[in-house]
Amino acid sequence: MTSTEAFTWDALPEVVAGYLRPHVEQDFATAVTFLAEDVVVIDNGETLKGRDETLKLFDASAEQYEVTTTLHSISRPADDVWEVGTHLSGTFPGGEVDLRMLFTLVDGSITRLEITV
Predict the structure, then answer these.
(1) ∠ CA(24), CA(28), CA(31), 5° rounding?
(2) Measured in Å, how far apart are the chain's first and last C-alpha atoms?
């Protein structure tokens, strides 16, 4: 897949779908289990290393803001990279934002997650 397609769960690798289902529900303790132990996560310009750092940041954000996440597109910019377009709405500054989630897979594991505007 090189072009952007509408979001469907079946179009994603199992590990990415496994991560996204609990992430959308803000069950980050479950979501991070789909990340490699030594994952690198870049979120809002901040680089996090490992599941524990990632869980702390995501949980802190969930405590501070109410967020609804809608998944709307999928593309595959490289063989080992999947991009999921999302729309967030909630009580955070600005109230709405479109984000890209870039998942890099190595041997079926999410080794990098980059969340950008």
Answers:
(1) 75
(2) 22
* Whether the model pTM is above 0.85: yes
Per residue in 14-41, pLDDT (tens digit) is 999 999 999 999 999 999 999 999 999 9
Residues 16-50, buried b or exposed e (16+ Cβ, 10 A)? bbbbbebbeebebeebbebbbeebbbebeeeebee
DSSP 25-81: TT-HHHHGGGEEEEEEEEETTEEEEHHHHHHHHHHHHHHH--EEEEEEEEEEEETTE
